[in-house]
Amino acid sequence: MKHIVREQLANSVAVMQQVMEEDSILSAVAEAAEVTAKAMMSGRKLMVAGNGGSAADAQHLVAEFVVRLMADRPALRAIALTTDSSILTATGNDYGYDHLFERQIEALGQEGDVFLGISTSGNSTNVLRALELCRKKKITTIGFSGKTGGKMVPLCDYNVVIPSSVTQHIQESHLALEHIYCMLVEQCCFGADFAKAK
Questions:
Q1: Rounded distance, CA 137 to CA 107, Å?
Q2: Does the pLDDT of residue 195 top 60, yes or no?
Q3: In the CATH scheme, what is the homologous superfamily, with its name and number, of domain 2-197?
Q4: What is the pLDDT of residues 77-123, one digit of tens each?
Q5: In whole angstroms, what is the distance from residue 58 CA to residue 113 CA?
Q6: Has this prediction a pTM greater than 0.90?
């Protein structure tokens, strides 16, 4: 069984190595962080959504923004659109699962906000509908996807497309980059040396 553990770790590391060498991915993460920080410093917010493991990522990432990642600092305005069971079930029941995130953006989204959609395939209909509405409402869009990026690519201002077709390895790279994205936003908002000073 140990050889399976070693093999899977090696596969994950190989994908992350590809990510590290892909300048377009690194640039997208850095630029998305700068835009997000600017929005937050202007009183706007980050909204994040995804399905399944990507929903867990959305909640994990938002927790880092609201609580902290690197060091003590003021809370940053972020919300996961995956957590309110009453909204999710009412929307799913009354309008259909495809409208879960779109409906919440209709209620909560404002011009100048940022929406980060996570979909390993890039083709999750409820994420796509949310991205389409964001474009209409002048909300900046960030896509974390995999494979070819799917239908999300033209709907996103910033695309982070993991070069893998294996869902678990896409998610592993997503989480690493989500942490870095949050770290960069913190640095933009509070200064590059704020973590060292605490």
A1: 11
A2: no
A3: Glucose-6-phosphate isomerase like protein; domain 1 (3.40.50.10490)
A4: 999 999 999 999 999 999 999 999 999 999 999 999 999 999 999 99
A5: 16
A6: yes
